[in-house]
Design brief:
With 154 residues, the chain is α/β, with parallel strands linked by helices. It has four helices and five strands.
Length: 154
């Protein structure tokens, strides 16, 4: 039988060394072994803190917007992650690069989903545990209304 070879882009926020990164790297390697074309897009990747497959040529990685900080005075981590992923996705779309992929695997940060879907791109989203459920400050009455709103949105 004839297999359908797909071109798959992975959108991952910070392609370092962690459990979420190991999962998407293993998924991409598995898809590549099946003959599919895979490519990672991220806003952070450094050769001294990553999995071998992302630096030895096994999996191509494109890094955009790494100049935007992860936080400002230890605040705004989630907001900046969402901003960088939105910018990364918009760049893919506006430059036409998104059209070279059959589907997008998005994990951790969901902001790319409505952007990609608005332009007719197929998406798969994976989130192994919603980050906001880990934040006890959402229920803490001592936290400001703005803090609870911010974490409630993300």
């Amino acid at each position: 039988s004839h297999a359908c070879i797909m071109r798959i882009a992975f959108l991952h926020p910070d392609l370092g060394v962690g459990g979420a990164e190991r999962l998407v790297v293993d998924a991409a390697v598995g898809l590549k072994r099946l003959g599919h074309s895979v490519h990672f897009y991220t806003y952070y990747h450094t050769p001294d803190h990553c999995f071998d497959e992302t630096k030895d040529g096994t999996l191509p990685v494109t890094v955009w917007f790494s100049f935007i900080p992860h936080h400002i005075k230890h605040k705004g981590h989630v907001l900046l992650a969402n901003l960088k992923m939105a910018l990364l996705t918009l760049r893919l779309i506006l430059q036409g690069a998104a059209n070279q992929y059959d589907t997008f695997v998005v994990d951790q940060v969901a902001v790319p989903l409505p952007l990609l879907q608005a332009f007719g791109h197929q998406t798969l989203f994976y989130c192994h545990f919603p980050d906001k459920l880990c934040d006890a400050s959402l229920a803490a009455p001592k936290r400001s209304f703005l803090r609870r709103l911010y974490r409630g949105l993300f």
